[in-house]
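Action item from last week, closing it out:
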Amino acid sequence: MFVRQLTKRTASCLPRSKTTFAPYDWADPFRLSSQISEEETMVMETAKAYARQELMPRVVEANRHENFDRKIMSEMGELGLLVRHLLLSLSLSAAQPFSPPRTLQHRVQAISDSLTPHHHRGSAQGPTIQGYGCAGVGYNAYGLIAREVEWVDSAYRSAMSVQSSLVMHPINTFGTEEQKEKYLPELALGRLVGCFGLTEPNHGSDPSSMETRARKQADGSWRLSGSKNWITNSPIADVFIIWAKDDDGDIRSFILDKHMAGFSAPKIEGKFSLRASTTGMIFMDDVAVPAANQLPLAKGLGELRMRAVRWRHVWLAARELIHIGSALRWTTCG
């Protein structure tokens, strides 16, 4: 008690420094615009222009009728908004600030025209994946894109994040060179859509209770049986990252496609939230999977779970920033 009182008295005798606060801006309460680079600002403005001009006009009808326009993934791919493959490396000039053109095609051309001469046009690049049409600009860019897409609807952000973080990332981290060359460039451009099959009807996302089984065959191929539930993008997906337990109880990962015999991915109707994205189930009835479709470095979910948590923190931060901004906007502007 004596130490606490002495500390309080000492603190009260110290001179108080005058703190100068920056003017408060409800639209940017954390002053993010002053903490990001020119390149990140360009990425943010591109995402903002697309979200406001292309996604916002669609969202009411999409939410009302529970419909996701597949073309959105291709549009995001063209602009580099699928996060892990930001379109080319942007060369910015302070004397030429970004002004979003009116049409999507003009925006793509404007971004392409801002490249330095030594960059090869037509390849896609991203924050963390190197090669395969991808190169890095960082986690800040990912968060900024997620924030702008989330501003319209979390359903659109969810579809985007699954494609980049839960499909491209496992292939890049656990896949072979052949798998990376085959899938990553097409996923980066939105020509292929992917989904992540972990959650199951009886046990949710608890991998220790996973019921989906992968039985290895004598020729090295696999047979998969089981079901997944609440899988974002599955009804429109071309590429399915499926997690299953093998005969030894180890969790393995495989790349499946929608044309495999015994495989189906019906849509779940009547969602109460995220209605502007598409969500479905996955059914596998003794699906034959070639050995070349196994992600060879995936054994267990430890590393993936830690990285997924890291990416989820970015998603959640982006979402909460939007919620805070929306609350402040309605409070301030009525």
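Closing note: The beta strands are 194-197, 213-216, 222-232, 239-245, 251-257, 263-264, 279-289, 294-299.
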